[in-house]
Amino acid sequence: MDPDRVLEGLDPEQLEAARALRGPVCILAGAGTGKTRAITHRIAHAVAAGVVTEQQILAVTFTTRAAGEMRGRLRSLGAPRVQARTFHSAAVRQLSYFWPQAIGGPMPSLIESKIQEVARAAHACGLQLDRTGLRDLAGEIEWSKSTQVRPSDYEKSIVKAGRTAPMPVHDVARAYEAYEERCRDRNLLDFESMLELTAAMIAEHPQIADRVRDQYRYFVVDEFQDVNPLQKLLLDAWLGDRDDVCVVGDPNQTIYSFAGATPGYLTGFSAAYPHSTVVRLVRDYRSTPQVVRVANGALKHARGAAAEHRLELVAQRPDGPDPLYTEYDDEPAEATSVARKIAALIDAGTPAREIAVLFRTNAQSAAYEQALADAGVAYTVRGATRFFERPEIRQAVHTLRGARQGAGSDPLVQTVRDILAPLGLTPEPPEGRQARERWESLAALAQLAEDVAAARPGATMDDFAEELDARVATEHAPEYEGVTLASLHSAKGLEWDAVFLVGLTEGLMPIVFAESTEQVEEERRLFYVGVTRAREHLSLSWSLSRSPGGRKSRKPSRFLDGLRPASPSLAGRDNRRQAKVVRCRICGNTLTEAAERKLARCGGCPADYDEELLERLKAWRRETAEQQKVPAYVVFTDATLQAIAEHVPADIARLSRISGVGAVKLERYGEAVLALCAGEEPAAEDRGGVPHGGRTEQAD
UvrD-like helicase C-terminal domain: from which residue to which, for each copy (predicted)? Predict the structure, then answer.
């Protein structure tokens, strides 16, 4: 590899990070600023420059998906032998290898989920808990082990941590002790104990420590704001007295403190390593300026240590549609309206898998599942059983592997669909939730076949089986062509073209249990994470009551203050432009929805636009979008085109006053739009506008 070629295409801050080849290095990376790009290019650059060999690098992250993505990037950069793993994957590999030497005897069985053993421990203590109670108890045990709290210290430790136990503290302590005894007696090992044992093995056996540290000399830790004390203990064991470590993260995306994560290791990195290099990535390649403005505004009033390291994002994408802020009378009305808006987006060309509905609690999912089903929109719920552990997927993968030998010359996609048809892949989704979930799983495999065929024309069943094997090994589930329903926590690390943040009321956002300042600030960061998942379309909504006809006593989330029209903080001097009241030019009512404000009239009031002009504008937009290979709404949204057709601007100044026509779009499309409004054809050089980057690789 040519070291200089590895650095091509990086922005100045990413380049600074990639050139900082020796640790300690701290990269503070805001949402959508290309942190994965920066660290993979830094690793490849270090290999190409001869600073370190591939086999001596350990890149650690938190999810198998992120680790798989990192390995893929490194392969494409010419560094395929770099180890990119989760903390747990790296630990189990080392523990398994050195177990005979360090401990001896049979290796313990690894517990994938604590629930069953926690239930037995609780029963042994005389505790009768439902599934929710068992999940809460398992969470407390995980927090305790991650923060190195023993059963005997639990009661005083939660007081010190300002934590509220989900049940009497002595009951948690008793069940925790019983759980640990069960694991010891039955030779079981959970993830936390695995990390602890690996760290202890390195600390207590100098020969093993020497071998591990000789193998790994160059460390990169992604999402460092999510590291808990136990993971930090293992990282320190790997490092020893060395400091060749690069950490990457964003303190304002710390949302797992309930599980023991702390941003303190990230925010205190410079103090721990006074000679460290610190790089800040703030160029946001993921989201439009409109979305970035909301994201920055969401943290404007943040407090605490994380807020002191707040990164002000700078949007790099062209203008997009304005965010929507919508208030509803009740939850069913909110869900129904969101489903209608999603259906409209899909009709306008946004793929269903590029749309997400995000909520604070999993209990909110049901209303949106029903509303989307009623609207005939396919969806998938994130956070359920792991994809490759589902019975129907295990059966399908086994069948597809077996079919690779006898596959004929038929196209790959048709072959896969024919194989999956007897297992339940019908042309249309069936009725009933369980049948539908099974169908969605099989449809995701069929979609994967289409993706493989599109990426590799002429791909065979052998190629598809190899792709399946790689994904099973890394738990990299294929995407399903349906709208994603997910909690805000499970949405971390993902992104979509359109995001609907729903249920934004006090008591849900922030959650009612968030009482201390620190807890409220974590809820604010969770809201920020939700906002920054959106590339183009962002909708924020709330309802005043739970049920139709109920008392409208709910209040919009405090995190919307200063963002939504007419919210309290908008009375300030700096926000006068946002606070401007827009009234319908036909009936005079105050307009709150962005699309109506753009048109300057209510959606139900009669339009007075030139229909022929609107059709010509749409035809021009379609041609422009095709030339630039972007969705039509990237050029102008339907609402903006309709507003142009209603106002028929005669010059740049008047065109610039229309919402959705920002400076960038004026420069790119202004002359063409004005020509169309004047009844003329745009000049040849104006017909397609300026080539447009759309979504860029930098965002990853």
Answer: 292-536
Q: What are residue 485's DSSP bridge partners? A: 357, 381
pLDDT of residue 294: 96
The encoded tokens of residue 392 equal 């129907």
SS3 letters across 417-459: HHHHHHHCCCCCCCCCHHHHHHHHHHHHHHHHHHHHHHHCCCC
Q: What pTM does this model have?
A: 0.71
Distance of CA 249 to the CA centre of its chain: 14
How many CB atoms are closer than 10 A to CB 272?
11
Give how far Cα 527 sits from Cα of 128, 487, 508, 531, 700, Å: 35, 11, 11, 6, 21
> Binding site residues for ATP, as ranges?
29-36
Amino acid identity for residue 49 in this structure: A
Give the model confidence (pLDDT) of 428-473 as tens digits. Answer: 767 665 676 778 778 888 888 888 888 788 888 888 888 888 777 6
From residue 25, give the alpha-carbon distance in Å to each of 244, 270, 430, 614. 8, 9, 53, 54
**Low-confidence stretches of the chain (pLDDT beneath 70):** 383-386, 405-409, 429, 431-434, 436, 473-480, 566-583, 585, 588-599, 603-604, 608, 629-634, 660, 685-700
Kindly list the distances between the CA atom of residue 559 and the CA atoms of 271, 365, 499, 500, in Å, as whole numbers in the listed order: 32, 22, 17, 16
Residue 176 phi/psi, 5° resolution? -60, -45
d(CA 465, CA 469): 6
